[in-house]
């Protein structure tokens, strides 16, 4: 009879969201983290795509892990990840075409994202599907939240807006969700440029480390 291991589930959740967050602790996936977080909606879009690819790939890898020989383990994992990412890319291109044009090459590059490959090798290949699924879900959510927060901060400081392109994901009705400081707000150009992403991420990492030390 299956008995849920709530202590293990809690530890997996805390690791993915905070203790071992891919963006703030492991510092993985920095290329898309820096490139697409010019606003919150872009971060949300790529974060969701990465989350779905991470969960679907790691659950599949966990299920077939006993049937893959050691010699072809990594190539087999990459093929599973590539198949899932290709399907996700096609769905985004079909239903969110404008967002797809913005995210561009960073959607297919999820195949080589260190978070996806790293969790498949370090966790999914060694644990049952329910644990692998929860681990990938929490890691994906943790990464997506970092993308959204960093994108929101850069958008707010750089352009004086928030949710400015929400209609790309939620339809024309979502244009009313845009928050703005007004037309007179000049904004800080550095926040919208790649160096602004590095600086913003640095502040987020420093804030997390400060909170960890304070709680300890």
UniProtKB/TrEMBL annotation:
> Under what name is this protein listed?
Ion-translocating oxidoreductase complex subunit E
- Subunit (UniProt): The complex is composed of six subunits: RnfA, RnfB, RnfC, RnfD, RnfE and RnfG.
Q: What does this protein do?
A: Part of a membrane-bound complex that couples electron transfer with translocation of ions across the membrane.
Membrane topology qualifier: Multi-pass membrane protein
Q: Which residues cross the membrane?
A: 43-64, 76-96, 102-120, 132-153, 187-207
Q: What is its EC number?
A: 7.-.-.-
Q: Please provide the Gene Ontology terms (biological process) for this protein.
A: electron transport chain
- Where does this protein come from, organism-wise? Thiothrix unzii
Subcellular location per UniProt equals:
Cell inner membrane; Endomembrane system
Keyword Endoplasmic reticulum attached: no
The record, for NCBIfam families, names: PRK12405.1 (NF009070), rnfE (TIGR01948)
Q: Which family does it belong to?
A: Belongs to the NqrDE/RnfAE family.
Enzyme class of the recorded protein, top EC level: translocase
List cellular component terms (GO). endomembrane system; plasma membrane
| Keywords (A to Z) from UniProt | Cell inner membrane, Cell membrane, Electron transport, Membrane, Translocase, Transmembrane, Transmembrane helix, Transport
Q: Which Pfam families match?
A: Rnf-Nqr
């Amino acid at each position: 009879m299956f008995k849920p291991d709530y202590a293990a589930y809690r530890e997996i959740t805390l690791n993915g969201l905070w203790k071992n967050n891919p963006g703030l602790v492991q510092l993985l996936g920095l290329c898309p983290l820096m490139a697409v977080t010019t606003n919150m909606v872009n971060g949300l879009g790529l974060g969701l795509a990465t989350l779905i690819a991470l969960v679907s790939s790691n659950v599949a890898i966990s299920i077939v892990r006993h049937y893959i020989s050691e010699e072809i383990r990594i190539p087999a994992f990459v093929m599973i990840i590539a198949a899932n990412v290709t399907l996700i890319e096609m769905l985004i291109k079909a239903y969110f075409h404008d967002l797809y044009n913005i995210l561009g090459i960073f959607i297919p590059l999820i195949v080589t994202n260190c978070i996806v490959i790293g969790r498949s090798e370090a966790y999914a290949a060694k644990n049952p599907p329910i644990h692998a699924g929860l681990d990938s879900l929490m890691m994906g959510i943790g990464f997506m939240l970092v993308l959204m927060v960093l994108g929101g901060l850069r958008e707010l400081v750089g352009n004086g807006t928030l949710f400015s392109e929400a209609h790309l994901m939620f339809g024309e009705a979502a244009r009313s969700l845009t928050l703005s400081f007004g037309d007179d707000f000049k904004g800080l150009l550095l926040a919208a440029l790649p160096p602004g992403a590095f600086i913003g991420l640095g502040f987020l990492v420093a804030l997390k480390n400060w909170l960890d030390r304070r709680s300890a």
